[in-house]
Amino acid sequence: MAEIAWLGMYDHPGQHAANDALWAGIAEDLRLRGVRGVPARLTRGVGTGEVWSHPGLLLGMICTRPWALAHDRLRLLGHPVYAGTATPGTHRSRIVVRRDDPARALADLRGRRVAINDAGSNTGMALLRDRIAPLAGGAPFFAPVIETGAHARSAEVVAGGRADVAAIDEVTFAALARFAPDVTGALRTLDWSAPAATPAFVTAATTPPEVVARLRSGLDRVLADPVLAEARAVLGLTGIVPSRADLRAHVARQDAAAAAAGYPALA
Predict the structure, then answer these.
(1) Which pLDDT tens digit goes with each residue over 114-125?
(2) Which residue among 137, 138, 159, 218 is the one 20 to 30 A from 179 at the CA level?
(3) Alpha carbon distance 81, 230 (integer Å)
(4) Is 191 helix (H, G, I), strand (E, B) or coil?
């Protein structure tokens, strides 16, 4: 089974060269330490489900919510730290509307059109759901819910007037502000979500323990290598922190609180 590597959680076209450079550094480090079958290039153009279930996934990334609910057989390697975030290894979502939207508070969004990247997303769905739950009163709050497939697409849909609100994680928003300022310039941050763990670096459960150890040390090295400083700046990367032990339990508590409020799903 051929090994693959995928860094597609934050891989705007303007960041492709930076992610390629980051992977080249990791791959070289692994080869120097005797790891065989290291892929020469990142995999692109495949769906997340295919990546996360691939038995040869050497290095990937996954949002913590789908990992906790359905992909716990992937081994967590740590959480990237991004510039501008409040706590290392976490990020929040900006709850955005169009710049000229009259809404001044979340309560003003009742009955409006919401765009989400995916129904299983933490930053695009669950964190917004958790902020709306106290306002919803156990009843549907938005109409309709529009699934776009990507955070960037959700931002575009709101900016273009086809939806009224979306939750865009702040790392994606920072990339869009750099590479698609016409989109972010048309948006206004109405509110913020609670913080959540950043998407984790992962490897397949079948990856041998000695390779897991080399992946972790390799990530530490490339995230401190001065040669890769420019690539890290384009990606907003500043470091890596270990995964919290209660990550799966935290997601379960998050869902239980929403269910107790009578608002288990964004609607």
Answers:
(1) 999 999 999 999
(2) 218
(3) 16
(4) strand
Amino acid letter at 252?
A
Q: What is the pTM of this model?
A: 0.95
Give the span between the Cα atoms of 99 and 40, in whole angstroms.
43
Q: Does the CA dihedral 148-122-238-242 come out positive or negative? A: negative
Distance, in Å, from the CA atom of 39 to the CA atom of 216, rounded to the nearest integer, reads 17
The tokens of 221 are what?
């090295």
Establish how many alpha carbons lie within 13 A of residue 229's alpha carbon, considering only the half-sphere containing its beta carbon. Answer: 2
What is the H or E stretch that residue 172 is in?
Answer: helix 170-179
Q: Which residues, at least 6 apart from 221, have a Cβ–Cβ distance to it below 8 Å? A: 25, 29
Q: Is the pLDDT score of 1 beyond 70?
A: no
At 252, list the tokens.
């379960």
123 neighbors 167 (Cβ within 8 angstroms): yes
Token pair 């698609």 is at which residue? Answer: 180
| Maximal C-alpha separation, the chain | 59
Radius of gyration of the chain (CA): 19
The mean pLDDT value for 67-95 works out to 94
Nearest Cα residue to 238 out of 219, 215, 218: 219
What's at 122, amino acid-wise? N
Amino acid at 119: A
> What is the pLDDT at residue 73?
86
Q: What tens digit of pLDDT does each residue of 165-186 get?
A: 999 999 999 999 999 999 999 9
Could you tell me which residues come within 8 angstroms of residue 121 by beta carbon, excluding any fewer than 6 positions away? 63, 65, 66
